[in-house]
Amino acid sequence: MNFKRRDFLTAGAAITVASTLPGYASVGGSGAPHVVVVGAGFGGSTCAKYIRKWDPKIKVTMIEPNDKFISCPISNWVLGGMKTMADITHSYDTLMKKYNINWVKDRVVGIDVDKRTVRTAGGQTIAYDRLVLAPGVEVRTDTVEGYKEAAAAQKVVHAWKAGPETALLRRQLEAMPDGGVFVMSLPKVPYRCPPGPYERACLVAAYFKKHKPKSKIILLDSNPDVTSKPALFKWAWKTYYDGMIDYRPNNAPKKVDHKTMTVSTEFDDVKGDVLNVVPAQRAGEVTALAGARNDSNKAWCVVDFISFESTAAKNVHIIGDSVLSNLPKSGHMATNHAKVCASAIVELLNGRQPTPTPVVTNTCYSAVSETTAGHVATVFRYNPEKKQWDAQPGGGASSQGDEINHIFNWAWAESIWAEVLT
Amino acid sequence: MEEYMNRILIAGLLGAGLLGAAGTVVASDAHTRVIASTCLSCHGADGKSKSAMPSLAGIDKTYFVTQMKAFKSGERPASVMHRHAPGYTDQEYEKMGEYFAAMK
Fold first, then answer.
1. Is the minimum CB–CB distance between A267 and chain B shorter than 8 Å?
2. pLDDT, tens digit, 9 for 90 and up, residues A89-125
3. Domain spans of chain A, in order of start
4. Strands, E, within A27-147: which ranges?
5. What is the pTM of this model?
6. A379-409: per-residue pLDDT in tens?
7. CATH number listed for the domain at residues A5-65+105-138+282-355
8. How many CB atoms lie within 10 A of CB A46?
9. Which B residues in the span 27-86 are in contact with A, Cβ-Cβ below 8 Å?
10. Which chain A residue has the Cα nearest residue B102?
11. Which residue of B has its CA nearest to A346?
12. ipTM for the predicted complex
């Protein structure tokens, strides 16, 4: 198979010209299929990249209002002072230029599933053949009384979407005196990043142990037990932070009062110096615009896993944390939803059938101290009869942390950022 | 199974010479490109790792298959690969090996 670089460059040049036209809307008659991706996180960026990689004749528009990619994975390291915001903030330039993705820096405010168009806050109407929604989660700040006021006063944040809230929470932890109390509250499953809250407790504890050893952490868990890597985290709390972390299961937050710095559960009023309340979540707002939050609770999106097409909205594919499934809601898994979805879209737009039994894998590291980490890793194979993913033999989690996993934790982050963005 | 293999064969023929944006030519079927590409979240964009994980681009196919089998059996100790390897079939090892060997 001989590949002529000149041919590729010519095709690339043609696409660049087309991409200067707003949303390709005016090139709709050209016959080239057009995919619009909404959201350039782990899932959306990967999907856009792989559609362009696997079929360069498909045009791709990305709608993403943020200038930079800020990674949730490793954001707990920023809270612990092991990394900085700069370490988790990455440019979109290579992704958009290398793959000739038409980047519209805007927000979607309307979706017309019948006409196959999206409308943006900036007033553009963009037509698509296939639409990919990758918005992550919507954090239900309305489910905890007083949260919105506390957040508006910059007193309480969830920092469950990495960005300015991560930086603010870090500043609050830095300003806290030695002997202070950090209260963290986490919601019932399903929520984004199951091990995230427990890793956060570990890395904040690591910071306290070094700089503010008289301080305490109260972890209010809405769930009856640690929801991910329980052996690893319980081992770390005992081994490294004995007496520092007060873990309280079955403690769902009802109310937060930033004037008295109190989180109230059904049983207790818990006071702290720094409060970090992570409310319940549901599929990202934009999925509701397509009528795609269609599970029994109207919270998450039901999809056909062969293509990740919504069962409620034709030609609309949903990937990442918004999807209802038995797969973990992780950034790593979002990239794999994206690859299955991108491959299926390429097949469908070429009149072929997608692979009927996709296989995806999840690899998720959690740091438990400055130098140690553990992992959970599982391969999942789609079972078309059961319409769910079968965990394959061999999968499982570390029961203790070690230095090798810590080295691979950081290597994983560097690798996946490169895979998603370059 | 036969129908599935036919589909793979047809998809493989149609998809042969898929053009990677980095200038690589990747011949594969849709099933293989999905499972192989999922490895790259750890093993590096275009199979070229810039971190502690080994690169997969251009790997010898036989070596790849042997190592996957060794991870599965436990013969080769690993930090996480013993969790991944048992999740794939011997045929998938072969297909992934071909895919990565062709990746330049």
1. no
2. 999 999 999 999 999 999 999 999 999 999 999 999 9
3. 5-65+105-138+282-355, 147-280
4. 34-38, 59-63, 68-70, 89-91, 102-104, 108-112, 117-120, 125-127, 130-133, 137-139
5. 0.90
6. 999 999 999 999 999 999 999 999 999 999 9
7. 3.50.50.60
8. 32
9. 27, 29-31, 33-35, 37-45, 49-53, 72, 79-80, 82-86
10. A1
11. B30
12. 0.88
